[in-house]
Amino acid sequence: MQAEAQVQAGPWPGGRKTAVVLTYDDSLASQLDIALPALDAAGLKGTFFLIGSQIRPEQIGRWRAAAAEGHELGNHTVRHACPKSSYPPARRLDTSNSYDMEMMLAEIRTMNSMLTAIDGKLQHGLATPCGQHLAGGEDYLPALRASGLVRYTRSADGASDGALDPMNLPCIWFDEKASGVDMIAAVEKARRDGGLLIIGFHGVGGDYLKVNGEAHAQLLAYLKQNTATIWVAPLMTVMDYAAR
């Protein structure tokens, strides 16, 4: 099923002022150990973009349980191939420079199958590795649109208060330099603007590119206290609502 060209950001369910989506990338242990319990304690649901090669066998049951509890599992490809320019020269990693579009789409298709084996769902969304959509220096987003492999693609930076391209959704990022106040301020701006805010995290209280665990907890507490005006839901749920 190919996504529509654009969907409108708002109005949101129950007259809420904004929709906030909490996304977590890279299949990190701190997400299972810290982020998921914090979300569950606050009664909130998040979207976790998993890298197939980073999922350890002993984690599969935990990811499956998270999906059963209403969290979304998303596609972050099998190997997370990024352009060489995204990494310091000393790091030996798979790079998308050696891919072509056919290879990248095949990897996305394979990761969809892995996710279905975990959560039982036939459709998933994608977060592009490193927030870009290049394979061998060529933009694979047009081919991905035509393929119907994913329902949405989260890639670009920024927030949106107007029409959205489901295949190039904006996202803002926080790391250990961000306080709870900083993150709450971003949500408050989205509430004033009335749009969609997708927040991206990697590690939570651990791992890399991490956000401080207490700051993350402050954000969740604020969101829990303001459910009358802020809708927090997994990204697939929000996009399905916006496309209605």
Structural account:
Residues 18-244 form the NodB homology domain. It comes from Sphingobium olei. The protein is α/β, with parallel strands linked by helices. Helix content is 34%, strand content 18%. The protein has seven helices and twelve strands.
Give me the secondary-structure topology.
Blueprint: E1 7-8, E2 18-25, H1 29-42, E3 47-50, H2 60-68, E4 72-75, H3 101-119, E5 126-127, E6 134-135, E7 138-139, H4 141-147, E8 153-157, E9 163-164, E10 169-173, H5 180-193, E11 196-201, H6 213-225, E12 230-232, H7 235-242
Parallel strand pairs: 2-3, 2-11, 2-12, 3-4, 5-8, 8-10, 10-11
Antiparallel strand pairs: 1-9, 6-7
Using only CA atoms, what is the Rg?
17 Å
Number of strands: 12
Secondary-structure element pattern, one letter each: EEHEHEHEEEHEEEHEHEH
CATH architectural grouping: Alpha-Beta Barrel
Assigned CATH superfamily: Glycoside hydrolase/deacetylase
Q: What gross morphology would you assign? A: globular
Look at the structure and give the mean pLDDT.
90
Instruction: Please bin the fraction of helical residues.
Output: 25-40%
What would you call the structural class?
A: alpha/beta
- Which regions are unreliable across 5 or more consecutive residues at pLDDT < 50? 89-93
Span of the ends, CA to CA: 15 Å
CATH class: Alpha Beta
Number of helices: 7
Major β-sheet profile: 8 strands, parallel
CATH topology: TIM Barrel
Q: How many distinct domains? A: 1
Strand content: 15-25%
Name the features.
TIM Barrel, 12 strands, 244 residues, alpha/beta, eight-stranded parallel beta sheet
